[in-house]
Structure prediction request, 208 residues.
Amino acid sequence: MRNRAAVQVRVFRVLRLLRHRFSNDLLTGFRLTGGDEFQGVLRKPDKVMDVFKLVRRFLGVDFYCGVGIGGIATPIRERSVEMDGSAFHRSKEAMSRAKRERTELVIVTQDKGIERDMNTVIQLILHTSHKWTAKQREVIAFLEDHPNATQTEAARHFRVSKQAISNTLSRAGWDQVRKGYALLEIWLERLGVRQSRGVDFAESIRRR
Prediction:
């Protein structure tokens, strides 16, 4: 990138936003790990898609995101690079796959069936959202920032008719994308429950 200095300013802004918005969900804060790469650790995987959407919205450049869901085999440290475990090995694998497949997001977990289904839904969401116009992104961002807002309230905010908002969302395929995100959140919550019960550790012993 030619504008690396400007991009780094946005990176630091995104890191501040992540630390502020997900302060209660972070095991370790998001920090630069070298160059233009950053990493963080969530306590549970249920916020993964919210983190991804925030980065995608505010970073302003193309990026790769690898998510590894698993355990931590070392003591908890302030910096994620000082820890190790299956979560980190899987996130490294996910990042490699994202770059190889030239896609923004890949999730790797111990359950290969759920992993396959999640990544399929993610690709459908990305394929749809890449086609959004600037206006569609603006309306959808408003609704995501105000989850209880109605289309009438969105219309009032943008000073257009409710029908115009409805048409914008329909053309964007927002209802389908929203349902895709909801399905991903269900899967991620289930994986978090399994993780808390030590399923990943048991799977690791069984494979050995």
Q: What stands out?
A: Residues 201-208 have pLDDT under 50 and may be disordered. DSSP finds nine helices and four strands in the chain.
